[in-house]
Design goal:
The protein is of the alpha+beta class. The chain has eleven helices and eight strands.
Length: 455
């Protein structure tokens, strides 16, 4: 698939500008890019995945070792007392003597080079695939960490905007409550207006408490990821930010990319290859012959007898050894059935991951489009709600609107503002999830989003 797959089509300037802004933001304070870098150094889930990847990287070397020569050295020191008696039939007179002796030490060095071991070749293929799966899993863990910290960062921003909206709503309701009290005192309004305003004020106060608690919870969640104190307030989106459609604007291309390039699919593909090689390994180990080239050097220290000292014995051997398995009690047949079933399971798991990747890409793609539509709708609703509030305030002053109309208009405006804020951040998150579904999310994409935030 071409490299032009991008969702960072949000009009926020070039990547170079974002990187320059990143350097400045590091010096000036904490931002999304800084949070992402900190999370990659502190997030325990990602650090555990990194160590797992380091362990998986050793699997290739382990598999290669199965195909390389193996050398062993053994030393055996034995002491044996024995007596040789007279032998009347011996033709050598010395053989008729009675004597005793002791055997010395034996040293053996052996070098074995596998020539034909199908099960070891299959095992090597398995270890190679485990290394590849480890790489894919680690890259996926990195993407997951970036998504986690971005989601946590945006959760804080949404909570900040929600609290700010509730604070503004409470302030406006408080002003309306004071107005209702004054009007009641001078007789231009009923007690009902004052009671309605008081009820809305009490409700807004409860919402403010909940919003503050939610913000504290979200800040703590982000703090756990980055491992450092957060500034008092995080900067949100710029006022004049514009969000654009994903590129390319074709869901089928994203689905095709996800089915092939998704890191979870790649890991599942490696697992399927491992299962296939396991079938070969098991069947080969139980049914196919093995051929090894064996070189051996043996040295036996001098044999000391009571009457003489025999010279040291050195033996050099080069042999080709053939081993043919014959029968192991029927274990091989049942083991073969097991690994074949597991191979089929791995193939179904691979297809399941492909379908999941397809669904994830579709969901994220549709989420971006729906989010963009929602943002436009909420922006229009915010303008309408603001005009409606102004009209109701004017109508209340001239007596054509009652207090409850103003309160309802206020609540509608602030609810719309909260929904608009959340829709914007959800759209950005879905754009990152779309790239993640295709296995293409990186720190540069986080930097692009960071360029949309106010400094």
């Amino acid at each position: 698939m071409p490299q032009r797959f991008r969702t960072s089509g949000f009009r926020s300037g070039s990547l170079a500008a974002a990187v320059i802004g990143l350097g400045c933001s590091t010096a000036l304070g904490f931002d999304l890019s800084a949070a992402a870098r900190q999370a990659l150094q502190h997030d325990a889930t990602f650090l555990a995945a990194r160590k797992k990847a380091e362990a998986d990287a050793t699997r290739f070397g382990q598999g290669l070792g199965l195909l390389l020569p193996a050398a062993t050295f053994t030393a055996n020191r034995s002491q044996t007392d024995f007596t040789v008696g007279n032998n009347p039939a011996a033709s050598i007179p010395a053989a008729n003597l009675s004597y005793s002796g002791r055997l010395g030490t034996t040293y053996v060095a052996t070098l074995t080079q596998p020539i034909f071991r199908m099960e070891r070749l299959a095992a090597f293929n398995q270890e190679r695939e485990r290394t590849r799966a480890g790489e894919a899993n680690f890259t996926q863990a990195r993407i997951d960490a970036l998504l986690r910290v971005t989601q946590a960062y945006f959760d804080v921003l949404v909570a900040q905007d929600s609290l700010a909206s509730v604070d503004a709503e409470l302030k406006a309701i408080g002003a309306q409550l004071e107005s209702a009290k004054r009007n009641f005192e001078v007789g231009t309004a009923t007690i009902t207006d004052q009671q309605e305003a008081q009820a809305r004020f009490d409700l807004a106060t409860a919402k403010q408490i909940a919003a503050r608690n939610d913000l504290d919870v979200k800040r703590n969640a982000l703090n756990l990821l980055v491992g450092q104190p957060l500034p008092q307030r995080l900067s949100g989106l710029k006022d004049a930010v514009s969000l654009s459609n994903p590129e390319p604007l074709d869901v089928s291309k994203w689905v095709e990319q996800a089915r092939e390039a998704s890191l979870k699919v790649q890991a599942a593909a490696s697992a399927a290859e491992i299962a296939k090689s396991e079938v070969t390994r098991v069947i080969s180990a139980d049914n196919m012959p093995t051929i090894d080239l064996v070189a051996q050097k043996r040295r036996v220290d001098p044999l000391t007898l009571s009457t003489n000292v025999y010279p040291r014995a050195d033996t050099d051997t080069l042999s080709l050894e053939l081993t043919l398995p014959l029968f192991n009690g029927g274990i091989a047949m049942n083991k073969a059935k097991e690994v074949v079933a597991l191979r089929d399971k791995a193939l179904f798991d691979l297809e399941n991951e492909r379908r999941n990747a397809e669904q994830t890409a579709k969901t994220a793609f549709l989420g971006v489009l729906a989010g963009l539509s929602q943002v436009k709708a909420y922006e229009a609703a915010e303008r309408s709600s603001r005009l409606a509030l102004e009209s109701n305030l004017l109508g209340y002053e001239v007596g054509v609107r009652i207090n409850i109309d103003v309160l309802n208009a206020q609540q509608q405006l602030y609810t719309t503002q909260r929904d608009l804020s959340k829709a914007r951040y959800d759209t950005l998150i879905n754009s990152l999830k779309l790239k993640a579904s295709a296995g293409a999310l990186s720190e540069s994409d986080i930097d692009d989003i960071n360029g949309l935030l106010a400094k």
